[in-house]
Design a protein that fits this description.
17% strand; Nucleotidyltransferase, domain 5; five-stranded mixed β-sheet; binds zinc ion; 2 domains; binds 5'-O-[(R)-(carboxyoxy)(hydroxy)phosphoryl]adenosine; single chain
């Protein structure tokens, strides 16, 4: 079974072909980073226009690289939520047009479910075997940060255990990088700078870092960095800048890793998984592996290319739906809301 996936929820236009074992036959990502970089963040209108330009070419390129014809496909999967509605709309319309003209079934995919299942993708022969259900997953990207119990591959099988109450973790990386004049997107550059820095150089406090709830908060640490920059300026010295990055990264990743592993222990689940752009962070990967091992759990980490936005994860999540006999109609809509159930803040509370 081969499925074509299309992704356009934010600033990457992607098309990919995967098979039922999660093998990635082709994964084409046309990044818009340089388009948005001068503004320090994604400009929705520019994103939509660029998706429009790139959607056709990335689909053609994915099929060519996978060396498959339209006849070999079992269906088309497209991200239809959550994201920038204008950006999503381009992918959804492209997928509808292709599905209609090629007589293929169409399924919409929740981008967050795609991130949660990215760990099942196989890009090479190496790599750890995929996890089995249930697992507890940390999803940390530019728009979302939450911990979920995942009992199966579909949105209905996912339960939120905790989530950020303000900024997403990736957003904190991006804002701190911007404050330090390191450019956009901030995650990869802070990760790189932090390699040379001392994580104990600056002490940051994370609100909710020590509460027993699995909720999180990342806006306060950004304010702490802003206050330092206001008082002392951006460190002119390369080593001090690296120390600041390492200290910030250490504070954020320690909370993420600790809450993930504690949540799994509380759920009586012995496998932890991470996903989303921040899952590419080296320090987070190291800490999650270390903490999970200490607690006798298995940590399964997606390959780096599967962490940041890509269409392969969308193709795979769509394949799961298609395999179960599910189809969407021509009334499939693009929406900014996730389909994942959210525990109400009030209901969960702080224990
Ligand atoms: O999943 P993703 O590609 O897009 C969204 O769905 O948001 O995540 C992008 C986010 C950005 O905030 C980016 O700075 C962050 O992931 N990111 C990282 C790293 N690579 C990307 N954050 C920390 N360390 C990294 N190595
Ligand atoms: Zn994403």
């Amino acid at each position: 079974m081969l499925v074509l996936g299309i992704e356009s929820s934010c600033d990457e236009t992607g098309a990919a072909v995967v098979d039922a074992s999660g093998r990635v036959l082709a994964d084409v990502v046309q990044s818009q980073v340089s388009l948005h970089a001068p503004y320090g963040g994604v400009i929705p209108e520019l994103a939509s226009r660029d998706h429009l330009k790139n959607a056709g070419p990335v689909v053609r390129e994915a099929l060519a690289r996978a060396n498959v014809s339209w006849d070999a496909l079992s269906g088309i999967a497209v991200t239809n939520r959550p994201g920038l509605v204008g950006a999503l709309l381009v992918g959804v319309q492209a997928a509808k047009g292709l599905a209609w003209s090629r007589g293929l079934p169409l399924v919409g995919v929740d981008h967050l479910v795609g991130h949660l299942l990215a760990v099942f993708l196989r890009r090479s022969e190496e790599g750890a075997p995929p996890p089995s259900f249930p697992f507890v997953a940390l999803l940390a990207s530019g728009g979302h940060t939450a911990i979920y119990r995942v009992d199966g591959p579909r949105a209905a099988d996912v339960r939120e255990l905790g989530a950020t109450r303000d900024d997403a973790a990736g957003e904190a990386f991006d804002k701190v990088a911007k404050l330090l004049g390191l450019g956009y997107p901030g995650g990869p550059v802070v990760d790189r700078m932090a390699q040379k820095g001392n994580p104990a150089a600056v002490s940051f406090t994370l609100p909710m870092g020590h509460t027993r709830s699995f909720d999180m908060s990342f806006s306060g640490i950004k304010t702490q960095v802003a206050a330092r920059v206001r008082e002392h300026g951006v460190p002119a010295n390369e080593q001090e800048l690296a120390d600041l990055c390492a200290s910030f990264q250490s504070a954020v990743t320690s909370v993420l890793a600790k809450k993930l592993v504690t949540a799994a222990a509380q759920e009586g689940v012995s496998t932890v998984v991470i996903g989303g752009g921040v899952a590419a962070n080296r320090e987070l990967r190291r800490r999650v592996t270390e903490l999970a091992t200490e607690r006798g759990m298995r940590a399964v980490l997606p390959e780096l290319a599967s962490c940041t936005d890509n269409a392969a994860m969308i193709a795979y999540a769509g394949l799961v739906r298609l395999r179960a006999g599910e189809r969407d109609g021509w009334d499939l809509v693009a929406t900014s809301a996730t389909s994942l159930p959210r525990t109400t803040r009030k209901g969960r509370g702080v224990r």
